[in-house]
Amino acid sequence: MTKMRKVPLRKCAATGEMFPKKEMVRIVRTKEGEVFVDVTGKQSGRGTYVSKTEEAVELARRNRAIEQQLGVKVEDAIYDELLYVIRRENLK
Description:
The protein has helices at 54-63, 65-70, 76-91; strands spanning 9-11, 18-20, 24-29, 35-38, 46-51. With 92 residues, the chain is of the alpha+beta class. The protein has a single domain (10-91), classed as 2-Layer Sandwich (Hypothetical Cytosolic Protein, Chain: A), CATH 3.30.1230. A 3-stranded antiparallel beta sheet has the order 4-3-5. Strands 1-2 form a two-stranded antiparallel ribbon. A hairpin with a 5-residue loop joins β3 and β4. α1 packs antiparallel against α3 (76-91). The protein is globular, with a radius of gyration of 14 Å. The model has no long low-confidence stretch (mean pLDDT 93). Residues 10-82 form the YlxR domain. This is RNase P modulator RnpM.
């Protein structure tokens, strides 16, 4: 008998919906306060997740959800990078 593996779920900072970790993009704040997109999902630091949709990223930008989660100002470049990562993945 094979045991079912538990799929790790994460909550989207923008929508509040729960999704499997693989369907999310992680944003990390390091101890130094640097914020970046973590495509590996394994970088150390305080992390938050956004679902891999352009709508979720734009919603997060509008309501400052990532800033609230990480407690620091998030530059527009981070949102642009999120959109780039999502668009690139959707092409595959």
